[in-house]
Structure formats: C-alpha cells, structure tokens
Amino acid sequence: MSLGLRTVTGGVKMPIGEYIYLFLIIVLIINIIISLYKFKNKVNTRSFKPYLLGFGKKFLIKLLQLYVVYMLIWGLNYQQSSPAKSFYLKIDTSYSALQLDSLSLDLIDNLNKTRQILTDSLIQELKIDQVFSNSILDYKQLKNRFPQLHLDKPVLKEAAFPSWGDYLGYMAFYQPITGEAIVRTDVPLLTLPYTSCHELAHQMGYASEAEANFMAYVVATESNDALLRYSMLLQMFTYCQSEHLGLIAKTGNFENWKKIVNRNKFILDAKVIGDRKKIKDFFIQRQDLLIPASTSLYDQFLLWNKQAKGIKSYDEVLLWVIAYKKQSSK
Fold first, then answer.
1. DSSP reduced 3-state for 278
2. For residue 60, is it within any domain?
C-alpha cells in the first residue's frame, strides 16, 4: 500500500501530508464548536442524557475507525519481526558505562577524522535538494550488499510548515496517509542527511524508531558520503554521551561525570565542537515553544506501539550500534 501511495504523491513537490493534517485539524475544530453549541442547547433538557450518550457512542466509533485505518496503513509495521536477524545481530537489553565510554571515544575519533575531510565551504554551500538526492542515492548504492535496504520510489519532501516542529517537537515525520517523508529544513543543515535517511527507513516499513535509526546508521557507516557519515556521527555521539553521563549520574559520582565531559571536550576537534554548538543553540532557542503535552502524548503513543522505552527508544540504537560493531569485527 505504501508503494502505491508514494507513486501517487511522489510526483507532486508539495508535502500533501501536511495539508491533509491541516484540513483534519480544521474539520476537528469545526466539529468541536458545533458539538459545544449543541451541548449548550441540550443542557437542562430531557433530551440531554440521550444526546450525551449518543455523542459518546459516535465519538468511540470514530476513534475505532481511525484506529483500524491507522493499523492498516502503518500500525501493523510495529508488529513485524526485527531486522536483527537479517543482519545476524544479537541485541543486548542494556549497555554498561564501559561500553558507552569505549563507543564515545570511537565516535570522537571518527568525528574528528571526518570533519577534517569536510571543508567549511562545502558545508555552507549545502543545498536541501542535494541532501535529499544524496540520501536516496546512498540507499540505492547499498541495496546489492544489503537487500533489506531496498526501497522503491522513495519520497522526501521539504516541510511547508516547519515551525509546527517547534511546538510539537519533531525534526521530520513519516506521513502514513500519503507515504511521504516530510523533513523540516529550517534546522541546522548538518542534521539533515541523517534525519533524511532515518525517514527513508520508515518508508521501508521499519516503524520502530530504534530500527529506523539503525538503518540510517548502517547506510551512513557503509556509504562513501562523508557528509552523511558526519551527520550520523554527530547524532550518535549526542545519544552516546547523554546515555553515558546518565549512567554515571545515577551512581552519584559527579567528579567522574565532570571528568568525562572535560575529557570529551578536550579531544573533540574545535570545528566539531562548533558544529555541535550551532545545533544545540538552535534547539535551545526554541525549547520554550514546545508544548509539554506533545512530548507526553508521543511518549505514550510509542509505548502503545510496543516501544517499551517510549521516547527513549531513539537512544536504543546504541544497542544496535554496539552489536553491529561487534559483528563487523569478527
């Protein structure tokens, strides 16, 4: 079904999925206003109770219909088997501080080496269309080695309303109704190559955030595209350092916490630190716009769909990365 949707929507540059959401929001608001008006007129009348029961019944039926449609076009992907088998990976359920420390040092080394390859002018001249086309090309070039990365008719589109992401807390999203991957392009450009590959993984049917992150990691790791690799390394290091420091904080050893932070800053290339600061500053400037309930709702949505750690499921890619590195070293 998703292939058919992409065939239809892929020929249109406009992100149809965003406009569908906008239309649904408008319809929802209109229906709420109409329902409140009817509710007001029924209060203190004999027909109020039957009306309320009827309204509740209709509402539940609508929710059930939406759930069935959602499951048919996307939700069942959460039930499919893990790609760990096709990559011959044994995924552990947890990691140690030592494993994360080792991974952090490896990521820092690769960050420094990759950043030396990338000139400042190349990064500054980066175009959105180039990022999208390169991401699609990276998948195509690896499909012979990794058949599980094969994707027909990929569709990446620039968000028409990127500021929605400030309030709802997203950088990109997969639109199951239209099959589009819609990406915010107002974010720092260095985040876009990895984000685009993550969304393409969703188009392949990998619904789990950890699995989509892992697919993007594999593409970036095995690709000759230094920009994609650097984008991925920036994200992986952010995940890894955050998790590592979190484990140390739980022990109460804040001297060790500060030691790790200072060590990482010392060995990171100055340009890498500058790139990370630009990304961090972008989101700090917008953090007050985020609607708190949106984070809680999305966390609950992921929990309902068998992603046991909710929003923290994104960080679970580190378990996959550790397993992949272990398998690759054999």
1. helix
2. no
Smallest Cα–Cα separation from 18: which of 191, 164, 195, 135?
A: 164
Burial of 84 (0-12, 13-18, 19+ CB in 10 A): middle
Could you tell me if residue 62 is inside a domain?
no
Domain of 91, in residue numbers: 79-328
- Residues contacting residue 171 through CB under 8 Å, at least 6 positions apart: 165, 183, 184, 187, 191, 195
Is 35 inside a domain boundary?
A: no
The tally of domains found in the chain comes to 1
DSSP single-letter state for residue 158 = E
CA-wise closest residue to 199 among 218, 175, 167, 222 = 175
At residue 304, the pLDDT reads 47
Task: Give the separation between CA 60 and CA 2, rounded to whole angstroms.
Answer: 27
Q: What is the pTM (predicted TM-score) of this model?
A: 0.86
Residues in the chain with pLDDT values less than 50: 75-76, 78, 301, 304, 308, 310
Rounded distance between C-alpha atoms, residue 234 and residue 244, angstroms: 15
Position 78 scores a pLDDT of 47
Q: How far is CA 97 from the centre of its chain?
A: 25
Residue at 238 is within a domain? yes
pLDDT of res. 230: 97
What is the Cα–Cα distance from 168 to 294, expressed in whole angstroms?
Answer: 6
Tokens for 144?
Answer: 């012979």
Reduced 3-state DSSP string for 71-120:
HHHCHHHHHCCCCCCCCCCCCCCCCCHHHHHHHHHHHHHHHHHHHHHCCH
